[in-house]
Amino acid sequence: MVKMASTEEQDRKIVLEFCHLLEKSKQLFNGLRDLPQYGHRQWQAYFGRTFDVYTKLWKFQQQHRLVLDSKYGLKRWQIGEIASKIGQLYYHYYLRTSETNYLNEAYSFYAAIRGRAYYSRAIKEDRPDLMVKKLRYYARFIVVCLLLKKMKLVRELVIELERQIQEYTTTYEPEDQLEWSLVLEEIKGFIKAESAVAVLHADTNPIVLSHRLSPLTTPPCERTPHMTLSLQEILIVGSACEQAKFSELTMDMFRMLQTLEREPTDAMHPMIGHPMAHGGPHDASPAASRMPYGVPGSKGYVENGDRRTMRDNPHKYLLYKPSLSQLMVFLSSGFKELPPGGALLLYMSADGCFSTTKHPQDYGYELGGLATSVKRDAVDGGLSVRGKSSAGYKEPHCLYPGDLYPYTRRPLFIIIDSDNSFVFQHIPRYFGQPLVILMSPQDIPANYQDLQHHGSLFTLFLHSPMTAMCYICNVGDVPIHHWERCQSYVDRFVTEASRLVTRCRMDEIEQGIGYIDSSYVQFFGDDFLRTLILRFVFCDVALRLHRGFRGRHQRPRCEPPLPGPELLEHPSLAHIVLQLATALDVRGHFVEGPEGD
């Protein structure tokens, strides 16, 4: 009897400890939403504490599963809910650090939930709130798979989500069934838009290509002592109204964030506090000992490690239709976090906010700008809704070029993708710091305008020049062997353009001829910024040669201007683009070139 009582007391302590860890984990997780989204020091320690508690909770339920099953009544969906929270932790940590290896960790947990069918009996619990958790899990898993380019799995998950939504709405007839139907349509529309050009295996099945930066795709560069800057902080803003989106990612944001990330490496470093390390006999770890760098603030993180040397990617913020005040706060935070020698990149994909001023004198505020959030405040009064100021006042929900003047105190690289992009070409360099502005065409030919819903053409050029080239020539699918052959022309173009940029700089030094602004040279040493500059050059040359893009507003601009004869109009670059067009069998889309093209 004494032994039985002792066992029951031990079991009771196990259940109490589990309840304590479960409640503490929920409190910490719920507190995450109150943390500031910007800055670094404000949230890292809290994330570390949250990871530590979930580590203990996960190991505890593994070690004491039999007791928890019999004495607590632990259900599989409850285990799934813990795993889902850990997956969310890793995903949000990826968003805050920009390290793609954390996406792989989030994927491991979400895949484990599906593989072990933790939510398989959710509908039998007769709890609509549990079914909503299951649907949200699917939506989050799809986002992670999209970012990891696991498109085959994405399509499988969409089919499963559709079936789960049907089951949920049939069983409960909930008030949010229209909302879930819209989520499903949004996902399907995003997937359709994402596959702008299909690359096919020999058996005609599509191949998924990654467009993150890798050693094989990093443009070559003959480095000089003037190439001093590295990209450290990024702000990616998506405010285009009629563009395909899922969750809070527009297609342009989705493409640009991948362009500004490196391929995840296989070099994983084990972390003592990894929530699923040391898997027990129940539900072996899907990600055992595979935490890439550790979580700052957690017990497994090496506090004296140099975070900057470990970080593969620049830190970035993603903002979907922010208010102007939100945009300025995040921009200021990125500005504040810049280390010495660091550069800040602002990318904005947005609809134009147009001015009615007939004789502008202030280029900072009288030429219009970019519409930010479409949300309206009660104090808007008589201001127009469609992005034009009225009654002599400026549109408050608009980012004007003048709003960016204070941030030119540090090295600033701006990309504007809008139908009002050119108004940003007049930003002055009051403080003598490096400043480059890449601006999209303000107009595109009528036969491409219906496709703008699938994402901007300019951003597509910066993301994947080969895909954009196919896009403007109406090439819908390409066999993989042919794609690789054509991609070699793009690689040749980028290599030659890089050589010309360096040569322009050397000629300037040796002959005193000001071919290329020093801002480009200072940014050119950074792999990401060099890639963007060279892809911009490809975009300009390709559209300049294309018969369909004849107006000046249908080609991109940059400030400071890149040299024409020495770079943008150089015969060797035009020759390579025309060779690519011939290889794609679309030579008729382009103007006549030199013989032998």
UniProtKB/TrEMBL annotation:
Pfam families named in the record: SCAI
InterPro entries in the cross-refs: SCAI (IPR022709), SCAI_metazoan/Viridiplantae (IPR016607)
Molecular function in Gene Ontology: transcription corepressor activity
Any one GO BP annotation for this protein: DNA-templated transcription
PANTHER family linked: PROTEIN SCAI
Protein name: Protein SCAI
Organism of provenance: Anopheles quadriannulatus
